[in-house]
Amino acid sequence: MKIARSTKVAAFAAAGALALVGCSSDSGSSSESPAAGGGQIGGADCATGTIKASGSSAQKNAMTEWINAYQTACEGATIEYSPSGSSAGRADFINNQVAFAGSDSAMEGDELQQAAARCDATPPINIPMVGGAIALTYNLEGVDNLVLTPDVTAKIFNNEITNWNDPALAEVNPEVSLPDAPIAQFHRSDGSGTTDNFTQWMAATAPDAWPYEPGSDWTAKGGQGSKGSDGVAASVKSTPNSIGYVELSFVETQGLKAASVDNGGGPVAPNADTATAGLASAKVTPNPDAGEGDLTMEIDYAVQDSAAYPVLLLTYEIVCQSGNAADTLPLTQSFLTYTASTEGQSMLSGIGYVPLPGELETQVADAVNSLS
Questions:
Q1: How would DSSP label each residue in 323-346?
Q2: Architecture field, domain 7-130+283-295+315-369
Q3: The whole model's pTM is what?
Q4: Tens digit of pLDDT for each residue in 200-232?
C-alpha cells in the first residue's frame, strides 16, 4: 500500500431571524450584551445577543441548520453566517469583523500571527467541527455510475483530458457508454478550503499529473470558475457534459450525480458511511504556532480501502483562545458548545456531512469550554 502524504487541512434559508448575510465592520456586538437566555440546547446554556461569522461555503448547509435550531431554542440570540469562502472568512477574522471564521483549511503561518493582534496577542486556535466528502459531481445524460481515479481526475482538471470518450476515461469505465463531447470543467473562482483539500488529494495521489502546489486558490490551466460550493453545484447542474467538485451536501440538496473514486483499493462512492471510514485515520496534530488547545488535523488522502472514500475535508471554526470580546464571548461559546454536542453533530449525517468521532467530539468540547 502506498504511504500517504499527510497534510494539514483546514472537516436552507431559515425562517425568522436567521440570516446568511455578509459581515460588516465588527465582530458582531449588539446593543444588548449577551447573557444567559434562560434555556438550553445540546447541553449549552442559551445566550442572547448578536454575533457574526463568515467563511467556508462547504459548511453552509450545516451552519444553516445549526443556526435555525439554536435561534429557535434560544430566544434573543441572532447568529449571522456569510458563506463567503474560507480565504475571505480568515481575512474577516484577522480584521476583527467576525466572532469566528469557518475554514476548510486550518489557519497557519503568517495568518496566525496576524490574527493574534485581535486575540490579546495570542494566536487563535483551529477547532474541527464539520467532516465531509468532496464529491466529484458531473452532468452526463445516461451515465449514472462514473468511476474516476486520481490520475484521470488530475488530468481532467489540468485540461489534459478534454473529451468524455478519452481512452483513459474509457479504460476505468469499461461498461459505460461515454459521449463524444468536450468536458466542461468547473472549479472555484474564490479562495476556497475545498479547493485546498481537493488539490491536496490530487498532489498526494497523482503528483505526476498534478504538478501544482496545493492551495486555496485555483492555479491550474483551463476550466471555468464559479464562486462558492453552491456556485459550482449550480454550474454543473445547468451545464451538460460538465464536472466539478463540491461538498457532498450540495450534491444531495441539489439532486446531482457524484462519481465513485478508485484510490487503488476499488471504486468508492461518497456518502456519510464511506466518508466516516475515510476520516477514521485522521489524527490531531496541534500546530505549535497556534494557541494552546489547537486541534489542527492531518488526513491520509492516499488511503486505499474499498470502504473508505478518500477525497475529504474537515471544516474548522477559527476562534480566539483568549481575548474574545466580552460582548460576543458568551454567545460564541454557547453556540459552538451546541454545534460540538452530540445533539448538534447528530444532524450532520442527514444533510450530507460526517459527525465528529466521539473522542474528537470530547476534545472539541473541551477546546470550546476553554475560550476566554
A1: ---TTTHHHHHHHHHHHHSHHHHH
A2: 3-Layer(aba) Sandwich (3.40)
A3: 0.86
A4: 999 999 999 999 999 999 999 999 999 999 999
